[in-house]
Amino acid sequence: MDFIFQVFGSFSLLLDPFNMTYVVLGFVIGTIFAAIPGLTATLAMALLLPLTYSLNVETALMACASIYMAGMCGGSITATTINIPGAPSSMMTALDGYPMQQQGKGALALGHAALGSMFGGAVGALLLIAVAPFVAELSLLVKTTGKFSLLAFALIVVVIAQRGQVAKAGLAACIGLMLATVGLDAMEPITRFTYGNSNLTAGIALMPVIIGTFAIAEVLMQAFAPGDELATKAAADKVKIRRRDFIPPWSDIRKIGFVCYFKSCLIGYFVGTLPGAGGSMGSFLAYTETVRTSDEPETFGKGNPKGIVASESANNAVCGGAMVPMLTFGIPGDPITAIMLGVLVINGIQPGPQLMADQAGLIAPMLAALLFSAVFLIPLTLYLIGPYFIKIVSIRKDVLYAVIALLAIVGSYVATYSTFQMFMALAMGVLAFYLRRNGFPVITMLLGYILGPNLEEFLRRSLALSNGDPTTFVTNMDSLFFVLLTLVFVYFLVIRKPARNPAVEA
């Protein structure tokens, strides 16, 4: 309860013009990046991460929270207006948003998307504020063997969640684990895999890995992607939006029903708590459930605002859910929380069971900014500058990506002040580009790299405490729980594949 009061007390920090400037600026930048097809809020946060070095911890985390929320709702803009989802989490929004645009109701569709995003973000943030302290208390019951099994569970779930490419996801995760072993041994004062290069003694820094994996790889992907810029620009020029059309009428909201809003929020939140699930899965499951329970399933995909609300409520609720494992166990729920984890670690904050008790004063402002972004910035930003966002897609791609490449290289150097690590960022970018071009999900590589050190440490400690007996992972109840949970997920996601929903596929 004290933590909840701390969060709501942290709203006073938003009255500081300095903090408010960074929160609003972060939200606008996150929305712009999410609205441009090919860019993501993950990329925005990766590029802006070096700037957090010059900020105090509270301001940096508040700006990251606003970028996160903006990244989830911003993709609905181009998904609705030109049928090009700006972010993967908005793919389901396009199914009904674009048909409404073709019917001359594009602004109304964006209004429903913003309202759904506001509900989803607010419910997700409130559940995070209420639940996280209790999850942290329960996590104190997890001992060394349980921590290894938990991290292994997270990595396995991330791999098997990549439907149709589990083998490639597993190989990418192994590459990440291998990168994590470079440098000093976790438990002994010896170096590994440095090949005589003293620059690798401290290992590969987190910042070059993040910037290379997302920013540099994205620039390379866009350089080799077939361009259809003229068609996109022509579609954007046809879109005419007025501010007053953004406000959904009360009759539409009543027809959709608050049950749809809250059910989609809960689906998104609990999907978010699963490592690696992300907004795309939350959006898909909420949309599928809404179609399944609807009296008019045939209207979905033809401009039903209920589909927009279900998708946007769920993917924004994911924000709150994904932060639960990140804060309490140090396990990122999606790529953006992986970068936020990097912000915490860089600033000397170690996520874990004691975080809520020992450093709640640093975490509370971030959660307050997350809630503020959902309740106030989503509707306000869309109403004030929504009509202009669609014109973002008209920016020349050669200029845009040249600037991104420059920021990525400069940012990787500023973050480490090491030319070697700057070149490592380039190398990671080339590696991630090669993986993406061949269908390997790079998020599993990144999570393998992030979770690798702790995974190795807890494995070796567990075996040392049990004199090398591997059965310790099934004889300790906390570890056995996560082993059984892993088997359950493997059964439902790999062995027993879910049935297809013809309404969604249509």
From TrEMBL:
This is Putative tricarboxylic transport membrane protein. InterPro entries: DUF112_TM (IPR002823). Residues 21-447 form the DUF112 domain. It comes from the Bacteria. Keywords: Membrane, Transmembrane, Transmembrane helix. The chain crosses the membrane at residues 20-49, 61-87, 107-136, 148-164, 170-187, 199-221, 362-386, 398-414, 479-495. Pfam families: TctA (PF01970).
